[in-house]
DNA sequence: AAAAAAC
């Protein structure tokens, strides 16, 4: 085997053979083309093989999944097809993830690494039919990958038994806390034997995460591949300031500029709201860019199709909410654009963590408008460095000219529509169909030239709001009850010993 | 300010 010696402090000269992994696992690895462990794998595999608890700081794309999956498979091998009756469906290893897509990806990896063994695995997550999942669980699996909500659903239906779980993985644990999964997590963990091995992975080590670790891990070994809360050195970060209402044009400009420079067109554009996400995707498409939106109001099928399209290259710009900020394993993402600066600085770290992975270089570009000062300051404080300010070559940040052309074009389109008598009904998302489905016409706010054109303050109203906000306010329904603070929940939790 | 996740 050829190993490249890098000036790397941890992983130099190491091979998968040197961990003493079973020949069946090594065979699967070589079929996958894996030759040399990544730094996180080099650190995690021996520790997990020893049965120790692990607190791991690593983002997706560092090879983290193999870092826990390989040693777990190794440790479960003696139990494959063991005497336990399948009627008891004893799950031995449970891997929990915050999003459905991540669950699916982790499962996909596990299944590939274990393909030459007798170990069985499956994945359960929401948004899809429960019955096939129930059937798989009843047939019996040693390794189960799941999102918390659907797993509890199966637990209630008694289609799975967690009393024999010896290994628990909490993947992207910080995200699970952000998403309010702590109560579900606690309910699940209470069903597991206290005697078990627990691995917790998180991109950031917030106080809440440390607290979670203190509750559920026993003398964990800490593994870090990068300084916590830091961003990758090989990612070129940049912010571009434009006027309010020029953000869409700025993104179009950035994407075209990259295409002209012969850079890869593939790009994730992050947006803060689901509505803004759909709107930007539509705008990019109108500008002739292959774009698609992915967010939580899309059906699971749409989400999977969009991701597939992005992976096979029919989609260049994936416009996403933070559903895609963490965990989506998209190889070699050359560029991430923040259309909106994220509300939380930690989300910035996660978003730009989609690029520059496994040593590749990447661009993380952010659009900045007046009013974003605080958000940017928080980000720079967290990553402990300033993000360089760039200028968009050949772009008019006030957008006077573009605004004029744009509104002319929109007026023409509105005329055409009036002549036709209704909207065109293309690509809507569930929320919107729901809210407007029963109305007398196919009217949608985005069809109205007023809502679509760049924001201009109304001359008679000092409190005019940008179109985005107006639409968001008009469509917002069914708000969730405020979350209880994480610390309060942890404080009230029964402590595992 | 928002997003995500069980029916």
Automatic annotation (TrEMBL):
Gene3D superfamilies: P-loop containing nucleotide triphosphate hydrolases. Keywords: ATP-binding, Helicase, Hydrolase, Nucleotide-binding. Residues 389-497 are annotated as: Disordered. This is ATP-dependent RNA helicase RhlE. It comes from the Bacteria. It is an enzyme of class 3 (hydrolase). GO terms for molecular function: hydrolase activity; RNA helicase activity. InterPro entries: DEAD/DEAH_box_helicase_dom (IPR011545), DEAD/DEAH_RhlB (IPR044742), DEAD_box_RNA_helicase (IPR050079), Helicase_ATP-bd (IPR014001), Helicase_C-like (IPR001650), P-loop_NTPase (IPR027417), RNA-helicase_DEAD-box_CS (IPR000629), RNA_helicase_DEAD_Q_motif (IPR014014). Its EC number is 3.6.4.13. Residues 234-403 form the Helicase C-terminal domain. Residues 398-423 have a biased composition (Basic and acidic residues). Belongs to the DEAD box helicase family. Residues 45-223 form the Helicase ATP-binding domain. Coiled coil: none annotated. Residues 14-42 form the DEAD-box RNA helicase Q domain. SUPFAM superfamilies: P-loop containing nucleoside triphosphate hydrolases. A motif (Q motif) lies at residues 14-42. The keyword ATP-binding applies.
């Amino acid at each position: 085997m050829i190993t490249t010696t890098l000036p790397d402090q941890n992983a130099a000269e190491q091979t998968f053979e040197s961990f003493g992994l079973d020949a069946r696992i090594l065979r699967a690895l070589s079929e996958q083309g894996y030759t040399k462990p990544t730094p996180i794998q080099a650190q995690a595999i021996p520790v997990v093989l020893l049965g120790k608890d692990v607190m791991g700081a690593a983002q997706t794309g560092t090879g983290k999944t193999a870092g826990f999956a390989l040693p777990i498979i190794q440790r479960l091998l003696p139990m494959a097809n063991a005497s336990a009756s399948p009627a008891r469906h004893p799950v031995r290893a449970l891997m929990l993830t915050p999003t459905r897509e991540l669950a699916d990806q982790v499962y996909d990896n596990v299944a590939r690494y274990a393909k030459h063994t007798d170990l069985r695995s499956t994945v359960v997550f929401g948004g899809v039919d429960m019955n096939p999942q129930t059937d798989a669980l009843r047939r019996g699996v040693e390794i189960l990958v799941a999102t918390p909500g659907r797993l509890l659903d199966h637990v209630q239906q008694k289609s799975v038994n967690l009393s024999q779980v010896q290994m628990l993985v909490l993947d992207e644990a910080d995200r699970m806390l952000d998403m309010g999964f702590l109560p579900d997590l606690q309910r699940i963990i209470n069903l597991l034997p206290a005697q078990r091995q627990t691995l917790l992975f998180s991109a950031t080590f917030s106080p809440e995460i440390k607290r979670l670790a203190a509750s559920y891990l026993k003398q964990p070994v800490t593994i870090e591949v990068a300084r916590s809360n830091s961003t990758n050195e090989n990612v070129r970060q940049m912010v571009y300031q434009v006027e309010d209402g020029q953000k869409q044009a700025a993104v179009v400009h950035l994407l075209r500029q990259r295409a002209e420079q012969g850079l890869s067109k593939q790009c994730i554009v992050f947006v803060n709201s689901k509505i803004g996400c759909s709107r930007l995707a539509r705008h990019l498409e109108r500008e002739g860019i292959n774009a698609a939106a992915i967010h939580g109001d899309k059906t699971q099928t749409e989400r999977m199709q969009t991701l597939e399209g992005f992976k096979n290259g029919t989609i260049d710009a994936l416009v996403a909410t933070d559903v895609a900020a963490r965990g989506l394993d998209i190889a070699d993402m050359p560029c991430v654009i923040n259309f909106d600066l994220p509300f939380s600085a930690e989300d910035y770290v996660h978003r730009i963590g989609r690029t520059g992975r496994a040593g590749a270089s990447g661009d993380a570009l952010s659009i900045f408008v007046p009013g974003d000062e605080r958000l940017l300051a928080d980000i720079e404080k967290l990553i402990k460095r300033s993000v360089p300010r760039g200028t968009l070559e050949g772009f008019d940040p006030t957008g006077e000219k573009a605004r004029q052309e744009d509104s002319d074009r929109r007026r023409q389109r509105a005329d055409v529509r009036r002549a036709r008598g209704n909207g065109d009904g293309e690509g809507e998302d569930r929320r919107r169909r729901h809210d407007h489905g029963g109305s007398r016409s196919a009217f949608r706010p985005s069809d109205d030239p007023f809502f679509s054109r760049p924001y201009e303050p109304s001359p008679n109203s000092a409190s005019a709001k940008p179109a985005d906000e107006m639409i968001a306010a008009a469509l917002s329904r069914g708000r969730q009850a405020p979350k209880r603070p994480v610390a309060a929940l942890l404080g009230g939790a029964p402590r595992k010993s």
